[in-house]
From TrEMBL:
The keyword DNA-binding does not apply. InterPro entries: HAMP_dom, HATPase_C_sf, HATPase_dom, His_kinase_dom, HisK_dim/P_dom, HisK_dim/P_sf, Sig_transdc_His_kin-like_C. Its main location: membrane. This is histidine kinase. It comes from Pseudomonas chlororaphis subsp. aurantiaca. CDD domains: HAMP, HATPase, HisKA. The keyword Ubl conjugation does not apply.
Length: 594
Protein backbone atom coordinates (compact mmCIF):
# COMPACT_ATOMS: atom_id res chain seq x y z
CA UNK A 1 0.00 0.00 0.00
CA UNK A 2 1.16 3.48 -0.76
CA UNK A 3 0.73 6.06 1.91
CA UNK A 4 -0.36 9.48 0.88
CA UNK A 5 1.63 12.32 2.29
CA UNK A 6 -0.89 14.32 4.25
CA UNK A 7 0.36 17.68 5.39
CA UNK A 8 -1.51 19.59 8.01
CA UNK A 9 -2.01 23.18 6.86
CA UNK A 10 -0.06 25.59 9.00
CA UNK A 11 -2.24 28.50 10.11
CA UNK A 12 0.74 30.89 10.34
CA UNK A 13 2.47 29.82 7.12
CA UNK A 14 3.76 32.92 5.35
CA UNK A 15 2.76 31.45 2.00
CA UNK A 16 -0.89 31.69 3.10
CA UNK A 17 -0.58 35.36 4.03
CA UNK A 18 -2.02 38.14 1.93
CA UNK A 19 0.31 40.27 -0.16
CA UNK A 20 -0.22 43.23 2.15
CA UNK A 21 0.86 41.26 5.23
CA UNK A 22 3.93 40.00 3.38
CA UNK A 23 4.86 43.55 2.36
CA UNK A 24 4.43 44.78 5.95
CA UNK A 25 6.64 41.96 7.25
CA UNK A 26 9.27 42.64 4.59
CA UNK A 27 9.23 46.36 5.34
CA UNK A 28 9.70 45.71 9.05
CA UNK A 29 12.49 43.17 8.52
CA UNK A 30 14.34 45.58 6.25
CA UNK A 31 14.00 48.42 8.76
CA UNK A 32 14.70 46.48 11.98
CA UNK A 33 18.51 46.77 11.89
CA UNK A 34 18.56 50.50 11.04
CA UNK A 35 15.88 50.96 13.68
CA UNK A 36 18.01 49.23 16.32
CA UNK A 37 21.05 51.36 15.43
CA UNK A 38 18.98 54.54 15.49
CA UNK A 39 17.35 53.48 18.77
CA UNK A 40 20.77 52.85 20.34
CA UNK A 41 22.07 56.26 19.27
CA UNK A 42 18.90 58.02 20.36
CA UNK A 43 18.81 56.18 23.70
CA UNK A 44 22.44 57.10 24.39
CA UNK A 45 21.84 60.74 23.52
CA UNK A 46 18.61 61.03 25.48
CA UNK A 47 20.10 59.23 28.47
CA UNK A 48 23.04 61.62 28.51
CA UNK A 49 20.74 64.62 28.19
CA UNK A 50 18.50 63.32 30.97
CA UNK A 51 21.44 62.59 33.27
CA UNK A 52 22.79 66.06 32.57
CA UNK A 53 19.43 67.59 33.43
CA UNK A 54 19.25 65.52 36.62
CA UNK A 55 22.70 66.78 37.63
CA UNK A 56 21.67 70.35 36.94
CA UNK A 57 18.49 69.87 38.96
CA UNK A 58 20.38 68.40 41.90
CA UNK A 59 22.89 71.23 41.77
CA UNK A 60 20.13 73.81 41.64
CA UNK A 61 18.28 72.24 44.58
CA UNK A 62 21.40 72.29 46.78
CA UNK A 63 22.11 75.81 45.60
CA UNK A 64 18.65 76.78 46.81
CA UNK A 65 19.54 75.64 50.35
CA UNK A 66 22.86 77.46 50.21
CA UNK A 67 21.14 80.60 48.96
CA UNK A 68 18.55 80.32 51.73
CA UNK A 69 21.32 80.20 54.34
CA UNK A 70 23.02 83.19 52.73
CA UNK A 71 19.70 85.05 52.61
CA UNK A 72 19.14 84.25 56.29
CA UNK A 73 22.52 85.81 57.14
CA UNK A 74 21.55 88.92 55.21
CA UNK A 75 18.21 89.04 57.03
CA UNK A 76 20.01 88.72 60.34
CA UNK A 77 22.20 91.68 59.43
CA UNK A 78 19.22 93.84 58.46
CA UNK A 79 17.35 92.91 61.62
CA UNK A 80 20.42 93.66 63.72
CA UNK A 81 20.54 97.17 62.26
CA UNK A 82 16.86 97.57 63.12
CA UNK A 83 17.37 96.51 66.72
CA UNK A 84 20.44 98.65 67.18
CA UNK A 85 18.67 101.70 65.78
CA UNK A 86 15.28 101.51 67.45
CA UNK A 87 15.53 99.06 70.34
CA UNK A 88 17.62 100.23 73.27
CA UNK A 89 18.43 97.41 75.72
CA UNK A 90 17.30 98.02 79.28
CA UNK A 91 19.77 97.86 82.13
CA UNK A 92 17.58 95.53 84.14
CA UNK A 93 17.53 91.99 82.82
CA UNK A 94 14.14 91.22 84.29
CA UNK A 95 12.65 94.10 82.38
CA UNK A 96 14.27 92.87 79.13
CA UNK A 97 12.58 89.52 79.41
CA UNK A 98 9.29 91.25 79.38
CA UNK A 99 10.18 93.59 76.57
CA UNK A 100 7.14 92.86 74.43
CA UNK A 101 8.28 95.09 71.58
CA UNK A 102 11.49 93.13 71.10
CA UNK A 103 9.69 89.77 71.16
CA UNK A 104 7.02 90.95 68.70
CA UNK A 105 9.59 92.27 66.24
CA UNK A 106 11.59 89.03 66.40
CA UNK A 107 8.48 86.89 65.94
CA UNK A 108 7.20 88.92 62.99
CA UNK A 109 10.58 88.72 61.25
CA UNK A 110 10.92 84.95 61.77
CA UNK A 111 13.85 85.31 64.18
CA UNK A 112 14.06 82.57 66.80
CA UNK A 113 16.77 84.00 69.09
CA UNK A 114 17.61 87.65 69.83
CA UNK A 115 20.01 88.16 72.71
CA UNK A 116 22.16 91.05 73.97
CA UNK A 117 25.30 89.91 75.81
CA UNK A 118 27.61 92.19 77.79
CA UNK A 119 31.07 91.53 76.51
CA UNK A 120 33.16 92.07 79.64
CA UNK A 121 31.47 89.40 81.73
CA UNK A 122 29.44 87.55 79.04
CA UNK A 123 26.29 88.41 80.92
CA UNK A 124 23.02 88.03 78.95
CA UNK A 125 21.30 91.38 79.32
CA UNK A 126 18.10 90.25 77.59
CA UNK A 127 17.01 87.38 75.35
CA UNK A 128 13.92 86.10 73.54
CA UNK A 129 15.01 82.48 74.07
CA UNK A 130 15.71 80.36 77.12
CA UNK A 131 19.08 80.68 78.83
CA UNK A 132 20.05 77.04 78.07
CA UNK A 133 19.62 77.69 74.34
CA UNK A 134 21.61 80.92 74.39
CA UNK A 135 24.30 79.16 76.41
CA UNK A 136 24.80 76.59 73.60
CA UNK A 137 25.50 79.24 70.96
CA UNK A 138 29.12 79.96 70.16
CA UNK A 139 29.93 83.66 69.77
CA UNK A 140 32.86 83.00 67.43
CA UNK A 141 32.69 85.17 64.32
CA UNK A 142 32.97 82.30 61.84
CA UNK A 143 30.49 79.99 63.59
CA UNK A 144 27.59 80.86 61.30
CA UNK A 145 26.13 77.33 61.25
CA UNK A 146 25.70 75.64 64.61
CA UNK A 147 23.86 72.66 66.03
CA UNK A 148 21.68 73.30 69.08
CA UNK A 149 19.57 71.07 71.25
CA UNK A 150 16.09 72.54 71.22
CA UNK A 151 13.58 70.54 73.18
CA UNK A 152 15.89 67.52 73.07
CA UNK A 153 16.11 67.63 69.26
CA UNK A 154 19.26 68.53 67.34
CA UNK A 155 18.41 71.71 65.45
CA UNK A 156 20.54 73.73 63.10
CA UNK A 157 20.79 77.46 63.42
CA UNK A 158 22.15 80.29 61.30
CA UNK A 159 23.95 82.50 63.80
CA UNK A 160 25.06 86.10 63.36
CA UNK A 161 26.89 88.24 65.98
CA UNK A 162 27.33 91.99 65.88
CA UNK A 163 29.52 94.26 68.04
CA UNK A 164 27.91 97.39 69.50
CA UNK A 165 28.58 99.96 72.23
CA UNK A 166 25.78 101.47 74.29
CA UNK A 167 26.47 104.09 76.96
CA UNK A 168 30.18 103.24 76.84
CA UNK A 169 29.59 99.52 77.40
CA UNK A 170 30.56 96.93 74.76
CA UNK A 171 27.87 94.40 73.82
CA UNK A 172 27.42 91.53 71.38
CA UNK A 173 24.04 91.30 69.63
CA UNK A 174 23.22 87.65 68.90
CA UNK A 175 20.62 86.78 66.24
CA UNK A 176 19.87 83.15 65.34
CA UNK A 177 17.34 81.48 63.01
CA UNK A 178 16.51 77.79 63.32
CA UNK A 179 16.90 75.51 60.30
CA UNK A 180 13.83 73.36 60.95
CA UNK A 181 11.30 71.57 58.67
CA UNK A 182 9.76 74.89 57.59
CA UNK A 183 13.10 76.19 56.36
CA UNK A 184 12.57 74.97 52.79
CA UNK A 185 9.00 75.00 51.54
CA UNK A 186 9.70 75.39 47.81
CA UNK A 187 11.16 71.91 47.36
CA UNK A 188 9.50 70.04 50.21
CA UNK A 189 6.51 69.05 48.04
CA UNK A 190 8.68 67.14 45.53
CA UNK A 191 8.13 63.66 46.99
CA UNK A 192 10.92 61.95 45.07
CA UNK A 193 13.50 64.60 46.06
CA UNK A 194 15.45 63.89 49.25
CA UNK A 195 16.99 67.15 50.49
CA UNK A 196 19.11 67.07 53.67
CA UNK A 197 21.33 69.41 55.66
CA UNK A 198 24.28 68.15 57.72
CA UNK A 199 26.11 70.43 60.19
CA UNK A 200 29.50 69.86 61.78
CA UNK A 201 29.71 68.46 65.31
CA UNK A 202 32.73 67.59 67.35
CA UNK A 203 33.92 64.65 65.24
CA UNK A 204 31.40 64.22 62.43
CA UNK A 205 28.41 65.76 60.68
CA UNK A 206 24.91 65.33 62.04
CA UNK A 207 21.73 65.56 60.05
CA UNK A 208 19.75 68.67 60.92
CA UNK A 209 16.72 68.28 58.69
CA UNK A 210 15.50 66.27 55.70
CA UNK A 211 12.53 66.73 53.37
CA UNK A 212 11.97 62.95 53.03
CA UNK A 213 12.33 59.91 55.26
CA UNK A 214 13.10 56.70 53.39
CA UNK A 215 13.86 53.25 54.78
CA UNK A 216 17.61 53.41 54.18
CA UNK A 217 17.82 57.11 55.01
CA UNK A 218 21.47 57.88 56.05
CA UNK A 219 21.79 60.18 59.07
CA UNK A 220 25.47 61.01 58.58
CA UNK A 221 27.72 62.09 55.74
CA UNK A 222 29.79 59.13 54.51
CA UNK A 223 33.43 59.51 55.52
CA UNK A 224 34.59 59.04 51.92
CA UNK A 225 32.34 61.85 50.72
CA UNK A 226 33.49 64.09 53.59
CA UNK A 227 37.14 63.62 52.61
CA UNK A 228 36.39 64.35 48.94
CA UNK A 229 34.56 67.55 49.88
CA UNK A 230 37.45 68.74 52.06
CA UNK A 231 39.99 67.99 49.32
CA UNK A 232 38.16 69.28 46.25
CA UNK A 233 36.01 71.97 47.93
CA UNK A 234 33.53 71.28 45.09
CA UNK A 235 30.19 69.46 44.95
CA UNK A 236 30.51 65.73 44.40
CA UNK A 237 28.07 63.22 42.92
CA UNK A 238 27.06 59.85 44.22
CA UNK A 239 25.03 57.51 42.00
CA UNK A 240 23.90 54.19 43.45
CA UNK A 241 21.26 51.63 42.55
CA UNK A 242 18.78 53.50 44.76
CA UNK A 243 19.95 57.11 44.69
CA UNK A 244 21.14 59.74 42.28
CA UNK A 245 22.61 62.29 44.66
CA UNK A 246 24.87 65.32 44.99
CA UNK A 247 26.72 66.66 48.05
CA UNK A 248 27.48 70.40 48.25
CA UNK A 249 29.97 71.65 50.89
CA UNK A 250 29.48 74.78 53.02
CA UNK A 251 32.65 76.54 54.22
CA UNK A 252 32.94 79.41 56.68
CA UNK A 253 35.17 82.45 56.28
CA UNK A 254 38.10 80.50 57.74
CA UNK A 255 37.79 77.78 55.12
CA UNK A 256 36.44 75.20 57.54
CA UNK A 257 33.81 72.70 56.38
CA UNK A 258 30.85 73.56 58.57
CA UNK A 259 27.99 71.99 56.66
CA UNK A 260 26.98 69.67 53.82
CA UNK A 261 23.86 69.88 51.70
CA UNK A 262 22.63 66.69 50.06
CA UNK A 263 20.09 66.50 47.25
CA UNK A 264 19.05 63.11 45.90
CA UNK A 265 16.42 61.40 43.81
CA UNK A 266 15.13 58.01 44.83
CA UNK A 267 15.25 55.92 41.64
CA UNK A 268 12.33 53.56 42.24
CA UNK A 269 9.92 56.44 42.98
CA UNK A 270 10.98 58.85 40.22
CA UNK A 271 11.69 58.97 36.51
CA UNK A 272 15.39 58.66 37.20
CA UNK A 273 15.01 54.92 37.74
CA UNK A 274 13.02 54.50 34.56
CA UNK A 275 14.92 56.81 32.24
CA UNK A 276 18.09 54.87 31.58
CA UNK A 277 19.79 53.77 28.41
CA UNK A 278 18.31 50.25 28.41
CA UNK A 279 14.75 51.37 29.00
CA UNK A 280 15.11 54.18 26.49
CA UNK A 281 16.46 51.74 23.90
CA UNK A 282 13.52 49.37 24.41
CA UNK A 283 10.99 52.21 24.30
CA UNK A 284 12.48 53.87 21.21
CA UNK A 285 12.86 50.52 19.45
CA UNK A 286 9.24 49.59 20.15
CA UNK A 287 7.98 52.99 19.04
CA UNK A 288 10.16 52.92 15.92
CA UNK A 289 9.03 49.39 15.13
CA UNK A 290 5.40 50.44 15.56
CA UNK A 291 6.03 53.43 13.28
CA UNK A 292 7.76 51.16 10.75
CA UNK A 293 4.82 48.76 10.82
CA UNK A 294 2.37 51.65 10.43
CA UNK A 295 4.32 53.10 7.51
CA UNK A 296 4.68 49.63 6.02
CA UNK A 297 0.95 49.06 6.36
CA UNK A 298 0.16 52.39 4.68
CA UNK A 299 2.65 51.80 1.86
CA UNK A 300 1.48 48.22 1.34
CA UNK A 301 -2.13 49.37 1.35
CA UNK A 302 -1.25 51.97 -1.28
CA UNK A 303 0.46 49.28 -3.36
CA UNK A 304 -2.14 46.55 -2.93
CA UNK A 305 -5.23 48.72 -3.30
CA UNK A 306 -4.91 48.89 -7.12
CA UNK A 307 -4.17 45.17 -7.15
CA UNK A 308 -7.34 44.47 -5.16
CA UNK A 309 -9.25 46.65 -7.59
CA UNK A 310 -7.73 44.75 -10.49
CA UNK A 311 -8.60 41.44 -8.84
CA UNK A 312 -12.23 42.48 -8.38
CA UNK A 313 -12.28 43.81 -11.93
CA UNK A 314 -10.95 40.52 -13.33
CA UNK A 315 -13.55 38.58 -11.35
CA UNK A 316 -16.28 40.88 -12.69
CA UNK A 317 -15.02 40.43 -16.27
CA UNK A 318 -14.95 36.66 -15.77
CA UNK A 319 -18.56 36.90 -14.60
CA UNK A 320 -19.41 38.76 -17.83
CA UNK A 321 -19.52 42.37 -16.58
CA UNK A 322 -17.42 44.14 -19.21
CA UNK A 323 -18.45 47.56 -17.90
CA UNK A 324 -16.17 47.10 -14.90
CA UNK A 325 -13.49 49.79 -14.58
CA UNK A 326 -10.75 50.38 -12.00
CA UNK A 327 -9.50 53.84 -10.96
CA UNK A 328 -6.18 54.95 -12.44
CA UNK A 329 -4.14 56.70 -9.72
CA UNK A 330 -0.71 58.20 -10.36
CA UNK A 331 1.64 57.42 -13.21
CA UNK A 332 3.52 54.34 -12.03
CA UNK A 333 3.44 50.77 -13.31
CA UNK A 334 0.28 49.98 -11.32
CA UNK A 335 -1.48 52.93 -12.93
CA UNK A 336 -0.33 51.70 -16.33
CA UNK A 337 -1.64 48.22 -15.49
CA UNK A 338 -4.99 49.68 -14.38
CA UNK A 339 -5.25 51.70 -17.58
CA UNK A 340 -4.44 48.61 -19.65
CA UNK A 341 -7.11 46.62 -17.79
CA UNK A 342 -9.70 49.33 -18.45
CA UNK A 343 -8.78 49.34 -22.13
CA UNK A 344 -9.02 45.54 -22.19
CA UNK A 345 -12.46 45.62 -20.52
CA UNK A 346 -13.63 48.22 -23.01
CA UNK A 347 -12.38 46.14 -25.94
CA UNK A 348 -13.96 42.98 -24.51
CA UNK A 349 -17.25 44.84 -24.11
CA UNK A 350 -17.06 45.99 -27.71
CA UNK A 351 -16.26 42.46 -28.84
CA UNK A 352 -19.15 41.10 -26.81
CA UNK A 353 -21.47 43.67 -28.34
CA UNK A 354 -20.13 42.88 -31.81
CA UNK A 355 -20.53 39.17 -31.16
CA UNK A 356 -24.11 39.71 -30.01
CA UNK A 357 -24.80 41.70 -33.16
CA UNK A 358 -23.28 38.96 -35.32
CA UNK A 359 -25.32 36.30 -33.56
CA UNK A 360 -28.44 38.40 -33.97
CA UNK A 361 -27.73 38.96 -37.65
CA UNK A 362 -27.06 35.27 -38.14
CA UNK A 363 -30.36 34.45 -36.51
CA UNK A 364 -32.14 37.06 -38.61
CA UNK A 365 -30.47 35.77 -41.75
CA UNK A 366 -31.55 32.23 -40.97
CA UNK A 367 -34.97 33.54 -40.03
CA UNK A 368 -35.13 35.41 -43.33
CA UNK A 369 -34.31 32.28 -45.28
CA UNK A 370 -37.03 30.38 -43.45
CA UNK A 371 -39.41 33.31 -43.83
CA UNK A 372 -38.93 33.44 -47.58
CA UNK A 373 -39.78 29.77 -47.88
CA UNK A 374 -42.74 30.03 -45.51
CA UNK A 375 -44.03 33.14 -47.23
CA UNK A 376 -43.92 31.38 -50.59
CA UNK A 377 -45.61 28.28 -49.19
CA UNK A 378 -48.24 30.25 -47.25
CA UNK A 379 -48.97 33.10 -49.62
CA UNK A 380 -49.83 30.81 -52.57
CA UNK A 381 -52.61 28.98 -50.69
CA UNK A 382 -53.72 32.28 -49.16
CA UNK A 383 -54.00 33.80 -52.62
CA UNK A 384 -56.09 30.88 -53.81
CA UNK A 385 -58.28 31.07 -50.68
CA UNK A 386 -58.75 34.82 -51.07
CA UNK A 387 -59.59 34.58 -54.81
CA UNK A 388 -62.03 31.72 -54.29
CA UNK A 389 -63.68 33.52 -51.41
CA UNK A 390 -64.06 36.71 -53.41
CA UNK A 391 -65.66 34.76 -56.28
CA UNK A 392 -68.10 33.12 -53.91
CA UNK A 393 -68.87 36.48 -52.33
CA UNK A 394 -69.91 37.88 -55.76
CA UNK A 395 -72.61 35.28 -56.34
CA UNK A 396 -76.01 36.88 -56.37
CA UNK A 397 -77.86 33.90 -54.95
CA UNK A 398 -75.66 33.72 -51.84
CA UNK A 399 -77.50 34.36 -48.57
CA UNK A 400 -76.52 37.45 -46.52
CA UNK A 401 -75.26 35.37 -43.62
CA UNK A 402 -72.89 33.45 -45.82
CA UNK A 403 -71.67 36.70 -47.39
CA UNK A 404 -70.75 38.04 -43.95
CA UNK A 405 -68.83 34.87 -43.17
CA UNK A 406 -66.97 35.15 -46.47
CA UNK A 407 -66.11 38.78 -45.66
CA UNK A 408 -64.59 37.60 -42.36
CA UNK A 409 -62.49 35.09 -44.26
CA UNK A 410 -61.30 37.72 -46.75
CA UNK A 411 -60.41 40.12 -43.88
CA UNK A 412 -58.44 37.50 -41.95
CA UNK A 413 -56.62 36.38 -45.09
CA UNK A 414 -55.60 40.03 -45.71
CA UNK A 415 -54.45 40.35 -42.08
CA UNK A 416 -52.34 37.18 -42.36
CA UNK A 417 -50.85 38.50 -45.60
CA UNK A 418 -49.94 41.81 -43.89
CA UNK A 419 -48.39 39.86 -41.00
CA UNK A 420 -46.27 37.89 -43.44
CA UNK A 421 -45.20 41.15 -45.10
CA UNK A 422 -44.16 42.62 -41.72
CA UNK A 423 -42.29 39.47 -40.89
CA UNK A 424 -40.44 39.57 -44.22
CA UNK A 425 -39.59 43.25 -43.73
CA UNK A 426 -38.10 42.42 -40.32
CA UNK A 427 -36.25 39.31 -41.46
CA UNK A 428 -34.96 40.84 -44.72
CA UNK A 429 -34.73 44.59 -44.10
CA UNK A 430 -33.81 46.71 -47.03
CA UNK A 431 -30.53 48.63 -46.91
CA UNK A 432 -31.02 52.25 -45.77
CA UNK A 433 -30.53 55.02 -48.30
CA UNK A 434 -29.06 57.66 -46.02
CA UNK A 435 -28.77 61.39 -46.41
CA UNK A 436 -28.36 64.37 -44.10
CA UNK A 437 -31.67 65.44 -42.51
CA UNK A 438 -32.69 68.16 -40.06
CA UNK A 439 -34.04 66.69 -36.83
CA UNK A 440 -36.57 69.42 -35.97
CA UNK A 441 -38.63 69.29 -39.21
CA UNK A 442 -38.76 65.48 -38.95
CA UNK A 443 -40.23 65.65 -35.43
CA UNK A 444 -42.73 68.34 -36.44
CA UNK A 445 -43.85 66.19 -39.39
CA UNK A 446 -44.38 63.20 -37.11
CA UNK A 447 -46.47 65.21 -34.64
CA UNK A 448 -48.53 66.64 -37.48
CA UNK A 449 -49.15 63.18 -38.91
CA UNK A 450 -50.21 61.75 -35.54
CA UNK A 451 -52.16 64.80 -34.36
CA UNK A 452 -55.66 63.31 -34.97
CA UNK A 453 -54.74 60.13 -33.12
CA UNK A 454 -53.19 62.11 -30.28
CA UNK A 455 -56.23 64.35 -29.99
CA UNK A 456 -58.60 61.38 -29.88
CA UNK A 457 -56.67 59.96 -26.91
CA UNK A 458 -56.41 63.35 -25.12
CA UNK A 459 -52.62 63.37 -25.33
CA UNK A 460 -50.69 66.65 -25.29
CA UNK A 461 -47.63 66.49 -27.59
CA UNK A 462 -44.62 68.83 -27.48
CA UNK A 463 -41.07 69.08 -28.83
CA UNK A 464 -38.11 69.61 -26.46
CA UNK A 465 -35.33 70.83 -28.77
CA UNK A 466 -32.05 71.07 -26.83
CA UNK A 467 -29.91 71.04 -29.98
CA UNK A 468 -31.26 73.57 -32.50
CA UNK A 469 -30.08 72.82 -36.02
CA UNK A 470 -29.16 69.22 -35.21
CA UNK A 471 -28.75 66.95 -38.23
CA UNK A 472 -29.28 63.24 -38.85
CA UNK A 473 -27.50 60.96 -41.29
CA UNK A 474 -30.30 58.49 -41.93
CA UNK A 475 -32.85 57.00 -44.29
CA UNK A 476 -35.84 59.31 -43.91
CA UNK A 477 -38.44 56.61 -44.62
CA UNK A 478 -36.99 54.04 -42.23
CA UNK A 479 -36.36 56.64 -39.50
CA UNK A 480 -39.96 57.88 -39.77
CA UNK A 481 -41.13 54.28 -39.53
CA UNK A 482 -39.06 53.72 -36.37
CA UNK A 483 -40.23 56.96 -34.71
CA UNK A 484 -43.84 56.36 -35.70
CA UNK A 485 -43.68 52.90 -34.16
CA UNK A 486 -42.46 54.41 -30.87
CA UNK A 487 -45.15 57.15 -30.94
CA UNK A 488 -47.93 54.61 -31.51
CA UNK A 489 -46.60 52.49 -28.64
CA UNK A 490 -46.60 55.60 -26.43
CA UNK A 491 -50.23 56.32 -27.38
CA UNK A 492 -51.18 52.74 -26.45
CA UNK A 493 -49.39 53.19 -23.08
CA UNK A 494 -51.60 56.24 -22.23
CA UNK A 495 -55.22 55.06 -22.67
CA UNK A 496 -56.47 57.75 -20.28
CA UNK A 497 -54.44 60.54 -21.86
CA UNK A 498 -51.18 62.14 -20.86
CA UNK A 499 -48.20 63.98 -22.28
CA UNK A 500 -45.92 62.96 -25.15
CA UNK A 501 -42.52 64.66 -25.49
CA UNK A 502 -40.31 64.37 -28.54
CA UNK A 503 -36.81 65.42 -27.51
CA UNK A 504 -33.78 66.39 -29.57
CA UNK A 505 -30.25 66.35 -28.09
CA UNK A 506 -26.67 65.77 -29.17
CA UNK A 507 -23.49 64.15 -27.90
CA UNK A 508 -20.05 63.99 -29.49
CA UNK A 509 -21.04 61.87 -32.49
CA UNK A 510 -24.79 61.32 -32.38
CA UNK A 511 -28.05 63.18 -32.57
CA UNK A 512 -30.42 61.75 -29.97
CA UNK A 513 -34.16 61.52 -30.61
CA UNK A 514 -36.18 60.79 -27.47
CA UNK A 515 -39.81 59.68 -27.24
CA UNK A 516 -41.09 60.12 -23.68
CA UNK A 517 -44.57 59.29 -22.41
CA UNK A 518 -46.30 59.52 -19.03
CA UNK A 519 -47.96 56.15 -19.32
CA UNK A 520 -47.94 52.93 -17.33
CA UNK A 521 -44.23 52.19 -17.69
CA UNK A 522 -42.52 48.87 -18.38
CA UNK A 523 -41.79 46.08 -15.90
CA UNK A 524 -38.07 45.82 -15.02
CA UNK A 525 -37.86 42.20 -16.16
CA UNK A 526 -39.25 43.20 -19.57
CA UNK A 527 -36.64 45.92 -20.20
CA UNK A 528 -33.95 43.34 -20.98
CA UNK A 529 -36.17 41.49 -23.51
CA UNK A 530 -38.20 44.30 -24.99
CA UNK A 531 -36.25 44.41 -28.28
CA UNK A 532 -36.43 40.64 -28.77
CA UNK A 533 -38.65 39.53 -31.68
CA UNK A 534 -42.18 38.33 -30.77
CA UNK A 535 -41.90 39.76 -27.23
CA UNK A 536 -44.68 42.25 -26.47
CA UNK A 537 -46.37 43.87 -23.48
CA UNK A 538 -49.68 44.29 -25.33
CA UNK A 539 -52.63 41.93 -25.22
CA UNK A 540 -52.55 41.81 -29.02
CA UNK A 541 -49.70 42.36 -31.44
CA UNK A 542 -46.89 40.52 -33.15
CA UNK A 543 -44.03 41.74 -30.98
CA UNK A 544 -42.05 42.83 -34.04
CA UNK A 545 -42.44 46.61 -33.71
CA UNK A 546 -39.55 47.34 -31.31
CA UNK A 547 -37.48 44.57 -32.87
CA UNK A 548 -37.83 46.37 -36.23
CA UNK A 549 -36.80 49.68 -34.59
CA UNK A 550 -33.76 47.94 -33.12
CA UNK A 551 -32.89 46.50 -36.54
CA UNK A 552 -33.25 49.92 -38.21
CA UNK A 553 -30.91 51.49 -35.64
CA UNK A 554 -28.31 48.77 -36.20
CA UNK A 555 -28.44 49.36 -39.96
CA UNK A 556 -27.87 53.08 -39.28
CA UNK A 557 -24.76 52.42 -37.15
CA UNK A 558 -26.68 53.64 -34.13
CA UNK A 559 -28.48 52.08 -31.20
CA UNK A 560 -31.60 52.40 -29.06
CA UNK A 561 -31.93 52.64 -25.27
CA UNK A 562 -34.94 52.41 -23.00
CA UNK A 563 -35.47 53.67 -19.44
CA UNK A 564 -38.71 53.26 -17.54
CA UNK A 565 -40.35 53.21 -14.13
CA UNK A 566 -43.67 51.67 -13.21
CA UNK A 567 -46.49 54.28 -13.38
CA UNK A 568 -43.92 56.94 -14.35
CA UNK A 569 -43.76 56.43 -18.10
CA UNK A 570 -40.97 55.35 -20.41
CA UNK A 571 -38.31 57.02 -22.56
CA UNK A 572 -36.91 55.53 -25.77
CA UNK A 573 -33.69 57.16 -27.03
CA UNK A 574 -32.52 56.73 -30.63
CA UNK A 575 -28.79 57.39 -31.12
CA UNK A 576 -28.27 58.24 -34.81
CA UNK A 577 -25.02 59.45 -36.44
CA UNK A 578 -25.19 63.21 -36.94
CA UNK A 579 -23.01 63.17 -40.05
CA UNK A 580 -21.84 60.77 -42.71
CA UNK A 581 -18.26 59.61 -43.14
CA UNK A 582 -17.75 61.79 -46.23
CA UNK A 583 -18.88 64.91 -44.41
CA UNK A 584 -16.56 64.19 -41.49
CA UNK A 585 -13.61 63.74 -43.87
CA UNK A 586 -14.42 67.08 -45.54
CA UNK A 587 -14.48 68.83 -42.15
CA UNK A 588 -11.14 67.29 -41.17
CA UNK A 589 -9.59 68.52 -44.43
CA UNK A 590 -10.94 72.03 -43.86
CA UNK A 591 -9.48 72.09 -40.34
CA UNK A 592 -6.14 70.88 -41.66
CA UNK A 593 -5.95 73.68 -44.26
CA UNK A 594 -4.03 76.79 -43.03
Amino acid sequence: MTRKDRRTPRPFAISRWSLQRKLVLAFWMVSVIPTMIAAELAATTLSQIFDSNVRIWLQESTKIVEDEITETLHDNARIAQLFLRYAKPPTDRNAAKHDKLTADIADSMGIDVVALIRKRDHQVVFSTAADDIVGQISLAHNAVLQTLQVGGVATGAVVSTFQTTLDGIDYQLLIATYLDASFLTSVADVHSLDLRLYLAKANDFAEIFATQRFEDHPTQVPEKIENILRDTRQPTEQFTSRYSGLYRPIFNDSGELVGVIFSGLLRHSSLVGLVNQSNLFILIFLLSSAASLAVGWLVSKRLTMPLRGLSKGVQAVIAGDYRQRVPVIGGDELAELSSTFNHMSERLGELQHLEAQLRRRDRLHALGEVAMGLAHEIRNPLGIIKTATQLLHRRADLPEGDKRHLEYVISEVSRINDLITDFLDFAKPSAPIRSTLLARPLMEELIGFCEPELASHKIDAQIDDQAPGATLYADARQLKQACLNLILNAIDAMPAGGRLTLGIAQDAEHTILRVTDTGQGIEPDMLERIFTPFVTTKASGTGLGLAKVFSIMENHDGHIECSSEIDAGATFSLYIPAKGDDEEDDEDEQKAQP
